[in-house]
């Protein structure tokens, strides 16, 4: 599969689900209208024109293109996506919501729903929403957080927006993290009566998530950024996060072959330690043969130790 297709697969899936949701919403509205109750969630009519459709094709110029979704329908759709107890209908509504996301509607959803219903929104929904927001307006999402949030909530949003921003625009997101980001975060935390010495240091922990987002776009690019001399202090944690993406994209054996081509050293050892348990679960004998090639190097010992403890393989002595 072409590498750049990986980045677009989630949006292709969202678009397909949006088409199904449009059909589903139209057919269920009539069927359920007779038995609606005061607690019934309104299901808006959703057009199938995506957020990145050509601006030349509008409802005015092309009768086959439905008009843009209104703010009221976005609100109704978000209610349905976050509060419907039916998992299929909830997933359809949430996918449709993502397919219609714009910088403006993202702010509205964060303000009126995500920040208000944090206990009702699943962790997966929150992470996916913030990731999507990062892909369409990473800089705006971060700035919204800095201007309006504080404390751990601020850190949570930034940590989950940065991977999407990294996937969409690696250079801009890294420039923010290496440039004005730390000072802006500290200033925002200070304004919100949060100890900047405590939360300002959290910014360094966002780097692995950002590099993981870049890996969603391109594994080789993420590795190149992670192994630059300026990132030496974070290289191991970044390679671990990138390796998680490699496992998803390539599978355990493919990720192991990918890791073989990394430069020798402790960052590569971190990648091996991330990949080894999944490889052992998937193909025990193949994983043993793979790890035996690293049995005599000190930086690979963490991977061997993890496998030894979990699967009772390899002697406990350090190489």
Task: Note the main attributes of this structure.
single chain; globular; disordered N terminus
Task: Explain this structure.
With 319 residues, the protein is mainly α. The chain has a domain at 235-319. It has helices at residues 3-33, 71-83, 87-99, 103-114, 123-148, 151-168, 170-178, 181-191, 196-199, 207-217, 219-226, 235-260, 266-282, 284-292, 301-311. Helix 1 crosses helix 3, helix 2 crosses helix 4 and helix 6 packs antiparallel against helix 7 (170-178). The longest helix is centred in the N-terminal third of the chain and has 31 residues, at 3-33. It is globular, with a radius of gyration of 23 Å. The chain starts with a helix and ends in an 8-residue tail after the last helix. The model is unreliable at 1-9, 14-21 and 23-60 (pLDDT under 50).
Tell me, what's the shape?
Answer: globular
Mean pLDDT across residues: 79
| Helix content class | 55-70%
Q: Summarize the main sheet.
A: none
Q: Hey, roughly how much beta strand do the residues contain?
A: under 5%
Structural classification: mainly alpha
Q: Enumerate how many helices there are, as a single number.
A: 15
Number-wise, the strands total 0
Task: Please mark out the parts with pLDDT under 50 across 5 or more consecutive residues, or reply none.
Answer: 1-9, 14-21, 23-60
What order do the helices and strands follow? HHHHHHHHHHHHHHH
